[in-house]
Every structure is written in C-alpha cells, then in structure tokens.
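Entry type: protein chain
Record version: 2
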Amino acid sequence: MRYSVTCAKTDLLINPINMGYSDDTSVTRFGPGVREQYIIHFVTKGRGYFNGNEVKAGEGFLITPGTLEEYHCDPTEPWTFLWFICYGDDMAKIFKSFNANEENGIFTYDFVPEIEAYFDFLTRNCGKIIGAYEMNELFYSVVKHLEKSGEDRVDSSRVYLDYAVELIQREYSGRLTVSDICEKIGISEPYLFRLFKKEFGKSPKRYISDLRITQSKILLARTDMTVSEIASAVGFDDVLAFSKFFSLNTKKSPTAYRSENLREKR
C-alpha cells in the first residue's frame, strides 16, 4: 500500500508536492529512468539497492533532476521508506544538508523513530490534497532533524530566512506585507515570525518597519528629495501616513529630523 499526500506545484522557493511512505515492493522501486524532480528517501526498515549500492534502515538516498536512477528492495528483507518529491531551485542547497556521499547520493541519519512518527499522519490523510504552506512545514519538520546531526550541516530554515530577508531588501520600497512574503516563500506567518524572532529578536513586520525608517533617515539626511518623494521611495503612497509612521518611530517629524541632521552637518 502507498500512503501519501500531495499539493499543487507552485513557483515557490522550495515546493514539496508529494510526501508518502510504503513497504509495497511494487511502489518502492523505480527505473532505470530519469526523474525531473528532487526526491528524498528515508529508509526506516529492511534494505534495498540504489544504483547498485545497498541502502538499509537509518540510511537514505537522494535523486536529482535529470539523473539516471534505479532502485528496488532486497527480495528477502524488503524496505519501507518515506519520501518527499520536490521542485524548486533552492532544493540543491537543502540537499547539501544531507551530507550524502558525492558518488552515490546515499546518506545516513539517526532519527528513524521521528521519521516513522509521520506514518500515522500519512495513513490518516492518504490521498488528500493539502495546502502548500502545510506541505512546506511538513517538509521542514522532517528536514530540521538534520540540523542536530552535525555542525557542518546546512540549516534548512536558513534558506527560508535568507530568501525572506532578500525579498524585503529588494521590495521594501513597494507595498510589501508579511503575508506577501509568506505567499511567495510558501510558509505560514507564525513560522516566519519564529524565524525572525530567533534570528533578529523582532517580528518580520518590525524588521520591515525598521528598514523603512533607516532608509528614510538616509534619504532625509543625504538627498534633496521631498518628503513626498521619500515616502514613495520607502513604500508609502500617502505622505501623511508616512509622516505619522516616521514620527511614531523616531519621535520626530521627517522635516524636524532633516533640519536637525543638516544643522549637525554644518
């Protein structure tokens, strides 16, 4: 039997579209052939062969797009494994966190019970289509166990955080919101909040506001732009709303800040 859940393919940074497990020998085999997705397998019981190399419980194997692959179970001790099928340019970074053998794509892991804990969820929800946010968080909740397994692992949450920061730096001058960020990355607002609080000690909303204040101060002090122009440059269509925002966060109006800064420069 095959137990799995799926979600639609999107343009997200990391897009797991299917998660499942099986011990059915007709399901847990493939090839020889080529797949166009990134696929992760965690073997929890038994053993099998991936491109001619033995893989047993506590090990797994990675498939990269466009690579010829073949795998099947051992006939006397068939395996059970959990898999993720994913798309997304940043999956290559996630794959590094597995520290897989560069020649055969096989990795080891020490959290078999944690992997098997997902079997109940998959059995209960078999065949369902779930949202991209939920699938992404299921994916991260599995991969995050790798972070505890070695100092040289790549922190998979860092991929989400770095992309969010890059997005903010690039688009803060528009009407960017926290929900926009979450929609583009494919994670929930509570999860993004936890990432920012852990890394910066502030919420994503506060991070955006602080960046807008910092950039506003630079433009007020170093340019001849009008307050209206500066408001537009940092994401405000309404100059009055910008002035209120700036005053609330600095205890000074934009005009007063500019005047004081210019006096200091003289």
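Comment: The radius of gyration is 24 Å.
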